[in-house]
Amino acid sequence: MDDDGRLSGPERQRRILETARQQGRVRVNAVAQALAVTPETVRKDLEALQAEGLIMRVHGGGIPVETPAYEPGLTARTEWTAEKERIGRAALAEVPAGGVIFVEAGSTTARFAELIPADLAVTVVTNSLPIAQQLATRSSAATVVILGGRVRAVTLGSVDALAIRNLQTLYADVAFLGTNGMSLERGLTTPDIAEAETKRAALSCSNRRVLLADHSKVGRVSFCRYGELGDIDHLITDTGLPAQQAAELGSTIGRVTRV
Question: Which SMART domains match (predicted)?
Answer without folding.
Answer: DeoRC, HTH_DEOR
